[in-house]
# Entry
Amino acid sequence: MSERTVDDGTQPTTPTATSLGTRAARSIATTTKTPAQLSLTTPRWLLRLLPWVEVEAGTYRVNRCVAYAVGDGRITLLPGADGSRIMAEDMRELLALRDVMDLRLLEAVAGAFRTKHVLAGTTLAEAGRPADGLYVVAHGQLERRGTGHYGEPTVLGIMGEEEFFDEEAALRGNDWPYTVVALTNSTLLVLDPDRLRQLEDQHPELARTFEQFRSGGSAGGAGAPAVASGHHGEAELPETFVDYDPEPREHELAVAQTVLRMHSRVSDLYNVPLNQHEEQLRLTVELILEQQERELLNDPEFGLLNNVAPAFRVRSRTGPPTPDDLDELLTVVWKQPAFFLAHPRAIGAFGRECTRRGVPPAIFEMYGSPFLSWRGVPLVPTDKIPVDPVESTSTILLLRVGEENRGVVGLRPDRLPHEHAPGIAVEPMGLDRRAVASHLVSSYFSAAVLVDDAIGMLEQVQVAHYHQYA
# Structure
């Protein structure tokens, strides 16, 4: 007969084990362990896709030919008691005032602007009619419109905060060359002809400056070098030379550093099956590379987001990034564009706009991973491009890369003592009196935009816009 257990009504019955249990067996078994998993790491596609230049002596000089651009094409606005006010020094963005050094005169001009609020759909300027002032956009979006060869309407561009129009028409007393319509409720700062005349009456120096501008033609830069072409006759050849920028920009390598600390008993006793020093070093380098990519995009000096020339910034017409917006971005970086760079939420917003239009983007494969693409150019994700937490807006970049293409390049040292990987050094710092070993982990890097048209930006795209489908 089989043995039976007795149930006294107070404890559950436990059957007698007939074989070794798994819990007991684990005590003498070898487990398979993974390396430590760090959820903060990303693929860091920018670091992979950016061509790297090995820099000697820690400095990279970008020699350019002379550029004749004046300022950044925008008039900086500051918060005031009753709205926005103009930074007086930025009045030099106007060609008529670019040589005025007297801050008192610039402040007089800046203070003569008045605030104007308009509703969406308001026509602020109409092509062919006399200009009624110089406008600076304080808030909102405006659209410049023209007329095509066959009388069809054309869109000449979108204007937003800190952009202005039209100096030539307002200061010379000409007609508007295009029509300007407010796409959104907008706030503008306006210098009208009456205030301009008052300024000239009160400040004779300004009157002379504006009169010189009116009589002197457009204050543009020097033209392209003269070159003759053709094969008829014996025309006298033009003479020319290409001037160099006398003050080329130099990029000094930045550094990201930390000290890795580990007690000697950990590395002595707990190194099987994974080497603790190597694991700690691997995770530390991962964190440093994450910071490196973040700085390559956001650093105020060399970060790509802060090195886009005004002429290569595009504004979204409707808010979310549409195929039209990316097409517009491709028109400013059209020479061998390599890839778009955007926050995953911005790429998702673009995908929704494509779905709405019924034009799904093609798939592009790199490094064994699929990417959405537009016009054959991949959209590469990175979470290092900021998303405004209140307005849910972000930025999309388009890059041409490589020295041979006069594009964007990454910079790192040619060689380092104690080099652990390209641009990364791990230097032992010894043991302290607590038997803790320290290692200095350093990463040296920077980025350079060789010419302005190597990088373009689609600004302030809305990433939280969704559609309702029937």
About this structure: The longest strand covers residues 436-449.
